[in-house]
Amino acid sequence: MKITILTIFPEMFEGFLNTSIIKKARLKHLIDIEVVDFRAYSKDHSHRVDDYPYGGGAGMVLMCQPVLDALKEHSCQDSYILLTSPTGAVFNQQMAHQLMEKKDIVIICGHYEGYDARIYDYADQQVSIGDYILTGGELPAMVITDTLTRLVDGVIAAESLVDESFENGLLEYNQYTRPEEYDGKRVPEILLSGHHENIRKYRLYESLKLTYLNRPDLLENRQLTKEEERMLDDIKLEIAEQNAQQ
C-alpha cells in the first residue's frame, strides 16, 4: 500500500514516520508513505496557498491551484483521494478495513477555514476523526495512516489484531503482566490457571462488560451469539446487584 499525504506542514510528520511501528513497516517496505508539501506548488511569488473567501467572512480558505496541482502530480488513476474534513464521515475500524482494499491512498490535509469547495470534486471521500475542530488535517492524516499501517500484512502479528478493541465489535478485555501482585492488587486467578477455555470465556465476559459500561452503542449494532447473550444478562444482573449495594 502507498499513502501520500499532501500538507503545508511536512515537518509535523518527521517524528511520526521515524518512530516505532511506522518506521519498522517503512524499513521493511511493507508500506510506502510519502509526504508532499503542496505549498511548493503555489504559483504565488510568496508561495501563498490561502486567500480571503468570496462573499466575505472570517478566516482564510485553501486555494484550488496549489492543492490540485500537487494532487495531479502525486496521484494516479487508481488513487483513492481522502479529504480530512469535519463534515466527513467519522473514521472508525470498519472504515479502515474498507480503505485497506485500496492500494494507493492520497490524504489531503485541510487548514484555515477549509477548502475552496471545488476541491471536493476531486475527492472520493471526506473523513473526520471526531466531532471537534483541529487546527489542521495533519493529526487526522496521522491517525488514518497509523491505523491502516497496523492492518498491513506483516506489520503486526495477525493473532494480535484479532482481540483488539473494535475488531470484533467489542472493547478489548483488560490485560495483565508480572508481577502477579502489586500494591495488594492481584492478577485474576483464572489467567494463571492455564485453562484455555475458561480464560477465553473470562476474556469474552470482560470484553462484553467493558463494552456495556463504556460503549453500549457498540452492542446495539452487534449480532450477539447465544453465549454472549447469556453473558450480557449475567453482566446486567451483576451491575444491578452492585448498584443496589451502594
Features:
246 residues, alpha/beta, Alpha/beta knot, Trp Operon Repressor, Chain A, 2 domains, five-stranded parallel β-sheet, two-stranded antiparallel ribbon, 9 helices, 16% strand, elongated
Structure description:
The protein has two domains: 2-157, Alpha/beta knot; 181-245, Trp Operon Repressor, Chain A (Orthogonal Bundle). It has helices spanning 14-17, 20-27, 64-73, 93-99, 138-151, 158-162, 196-214, 216-220, 226-245, and strands at 2-7, 32-37, 50-51, 61-62, 80-90, 104-108, 125-128, 181-182, 185-186. 22% of the residues are buried. Helix content is 37%, strand content 16%. Strand 8 (181-182) and strand 9 (185-186) form a beta hairpin. It has a five-stranded parallel beta sheet with strand order 2-1-6-5-7, sandwiched between helices. The model has no long low-confidence stretch (mean pLDDT 95). The chain has 246 residues and is of the alpha/beta class.
